[in-house]
Fold:
Amino acid sequence: MPRVKIVLVACATIVLSVAALALVSAFPPSQFNFYPKCMMYQWTGLHCPGCGGTRAVHELSQGRFQEAIRMNALVILLLPILVATLVWQYFAHGGKKPFFQLVTGPKSAWALAFLVIGFGVLRNIPVEPFTWIAPISQTQTQMQTQTQTGSQTKQ
Structure:
């Protein structure tokens, strides 16, 4: 892939990521219904590894790290790793390798698969401490948002 094309893909990715972050930040997923619903949760009642990810990004964009971790710890912890990996790959290889080549070998692919699948399984075990990594329900999120909004207006 020519260097100019790689730079354009990188720039487009950055612009789209910033736009998506602005959208999620401006329109809380707990208050707006245009965000896609998790099909796995709707069909089975089980939380997939990504459940709560959009709400986690919203909470993080509002500076509420603890609530973001409570929604989806995997997404919040993997976001900086994803960004660092993309930047490292771009600069370490001088823009000569494909921009989205995240997994560099079978060991890292298996480790990532084990992490994601393990997280998905553990968050569905209805016993503490595993319930701590299950996302907070939509109703609880709305109640927290209303409580925070009410406490801000009283100040």
Q: What stands out?
A: Residues 3-150 form one domain. DSSP finds seven helices and no strands in the chain. The CA atoms of residues 4 and 70 lie 40 Å apart. The first helix runs from residue 3 to 26.
